[in-house]
């Protein structure tokens, strides 16, 4: 009878299994949205909520941004000063507010190597005859408005310039570029022991002194020419407070530092325990005393120079014909035997500087970070640089914090806000942050949004970024209306002002490239994180100013911003809406809204320069071929197109696999990292991105290849050209591999 029991048990088991399958098939709702399905199944596939996105933009108030800026720019807040410390407290209080705050906020402190003038011994530039001083430059700017005056306004100086009192005959060296100094030498002028006066622009601040020292120059004076900043206007009646133009006494301060990050701790966070190099080992700072002055003082010096007339391209708007010297002319304001003396008493010191970090934890993917940053420190009141950006960030966090605290929203991915310290001295706060959290940020960061100066002027959007960021910035800009007209989008207005013809899309706004001018530098060059910088700017058809005229001067005040940069603060509001829109898209979209295919156009553009006749002929003459690079770019474009098709199919699925979504997003996130090569530029701190590294060559191709090619034309060393061709090919192939199917 045992076999009957076994048979019965098998039949009963089969019936139970059949009933279970039928119940499972008919009882569980299809589509994964039924009441019996776990909540995580429903939320894990949550996509961007467009109505919530619109609600965010509707809540952004121009009046709140104006209030923020008035508070932020009420007093000077140079890094580590009392004003800076007060703003640290302000940000912490806002981000920890129980009604509108974030999940959490913290203060991260670094021991930054900084440079300050001696308050007891002001710097100056003087004209001396024998032992007598017969002229000296202003020690501070003229007060023209009530909100400009403050006891903590720092005297004009060149940060990191060494102390000293060199004296010599004055020469005019245009922008202080290498070819400018060489022009003087070619004219038979002996530069040894001279003092060179140069104008801002052309070369980096530090380079004017570094290069000058190579030619024997003993000291450097730097000024802002009204031709470069004021559209030629130079009189008090034509300048602030009567217009936005820089007054004659205005002096542009700045960091004379060719690198970014703390100078004593490259690649390591500047903590108390950190190894520091010797001060004598620092590179990229002036080896000779350097001092900035206003253009009214520059006029007194330049308009009395002797020697040949300067080239036409060197002339400016000081109201005289510029001569190159050396020394002063006979019959001028000074005896022709007079010298110029540069008196610098700067002090270098390690001081604690803080980053203020704000956090919103993601609900579905808390280990994926969208970062948004702006630096906090200024040179003086800093209404535009950087407080316009901080005012916008505080309004974005107010609205998001309110939505968060009311339980109306939590992002899919975590959001990290950074208020960076000591940016003006060389992007120190943001760089130290990327050094301290190097591994975590490389593994988990989706993108970095930078809003430094949010409004240069009120004409149009200006955005910079790596190619994948183009699509998300465009999408956001199309949803925001311009301040001037509710019928015109920020996108259309931007396209009208700055555009290019894209082989893929036709006429589109021109997305600029990122250099190393703000806090995105370490994120893109060192970590390989997709980055962007967003601002409003001026109409290039109406001004040729290289930047807003009060930049880094004592005239960058709330009054200046309120009356001349953005009356009504509607451009600030447009930037907040656009940048906030980008932030929410990156934080909440199921599939990251970064288009990998857009890198193809940039690769084609850089390749086309190398494929031009002279460039290509020189390569071929030295047995070098571009064929492997052409093939690698072709492969990348093909793989990227296939990858986008895969995403399209995935989005059409009713219930896409969470693991498949995660895998695709990781490929998008890691694409930028594929272009990194830490060995590519051994002589450049932090630069490892093969596409975006700095270069000195004028060749508009891949930076390493461009510099190697230009050098080879002079030295005949074509091995370095082959090396950098290899580096580029490997990087493009790696990028293609990143987008290919995992298995």
Automatic annotation (TrEMBL):
Keyword Cell cycle listed: no
All copies of domain Transferrin receptor-like dimerisation, residue ranges: 624-740
Membrane-topology annotation of the record: Single-pass type II membrane protein
Compartments where located: Apical cell membrane
One GO cellular component term noted in the UniProt record for this chain: apical plasma membrane
GO terms, molecular function: aminopeptidase activity; carboxypeptidase activity; metal ion binding; metallopeptidase activity
Ranges where the PA domain occurs: 168-254
InterPro entries in alphabetical order: PA_dom_sf (IPR046450), PA_domain (IPR003137), Peptidase_M28 (IPR007484), Peptidase_M28B (IPR039373), TFR-like_dimer_dom (IPR007365), TFR-like_dimer_dom_sf (IPR036757)
Domain Peptidase M28: 355-562
Pfam families, alphabetized: PA, Peptidase_M28, TFR_dimer
GO biological process entries: proteolysis
Swiss-Prot/TrEMBL cofactor(s): Zn(2+)
Keyword terms: Aminopeptidase, Calcium, Cell membrane, Disulfide bond, Glycoprotein, Hydrolase, Membrane, Metal-binding, Metalloprotease, Protease, Signal-anchor, Transmembrane, Transmembrane helix, Zinc
Transmembrane domains' residue ranges: 7-28
Family, similarity comment: Belongs to the peptidase M28 family. M28B subfamily.
Function, as annotated: Aminopeptidase with broad substrate specificity. Has lower activity with substrates that have Asp or Glu in the P2' position, or Pro in the P3' position. Lacks activity with substrates that have both Pro in the P3' position and Asp or Glu in the P2' position. Lacks carboxypeptidase activity. Lacks dipeptidyl-peptidase IV type activity.
Classification via PANTHER family: AMINOPEPTIDASE NAALADL1, N-ACETYLATED-ALPHA-LINKED ACIDIC DIPEPTIDASE
Descriptive protein name: Aminopeptidase NAALADL1
